Amino acid sequence: DTGVSQNPRHKITKRGQNVTFRCDPISEHNRLYWYRQTLGQGPEFLTYFQNEAQLEKSRLLSDRFSAERPKGSFSTLEIQRTEQGDSAMYLCASSALQGSAGELFFGEGSRLTVL
Amino acid sequence: SQKIEQNSEALNIQEGKTATLTCNYTNYSPAYLQWYRQDPGRGPVFLLLIRENEKEKRKERLKVTFDTTLKQSLFHITASQPADSATYLCAHWGYSTLTFGKGTMLLVSP
Can you tell me whether residue A68 is helix, strand or coil? Predict the structure, then answer.
């Protein structure tokens, strides 16, 4: 396994368009996380899945954001009606179900630019 | 809620010196603290984890300390190299999610 994979790596879109990002986690990892990161800030938690169940969502995740992990494997993060404030790096991470000491394995991120 | 604070100013040091980065937390003492490295345009990479009951943890040139009295973790890189230049993130687990500080950029000059 080559690690967490994210696609696309870069996306430029016009305000109002919808975008979708895909994350393929490390295959044996049960947990999958989405984070958002803007320049000069640390990653901010958006949502996480344990297998196919979405267990927690941040208040940062507005109604325009939706995430799925239909078969407990890959996940998608969709942003509808994008706004300039959505411009950020969207990071996906996975971890094995091993309690709160577990490390996260991050992908390289999907950078979104909204014009 | 728990807050993680890291010095937002970049740390500039010369090659060969020891770099020391600070992570302060408010409120309760987290059971674990983690440190990650992040290069520009890349995802964070896990480096070290230290438990609340551990005073110190080492891995090669890296050392992390955890002082629950000061509510602080220190991250040291000894014999620093230009390749160590990156942003270093401190993080703690809340109930079910990992919360990160803003990170501190380290610049090691030859």
Answer: strand
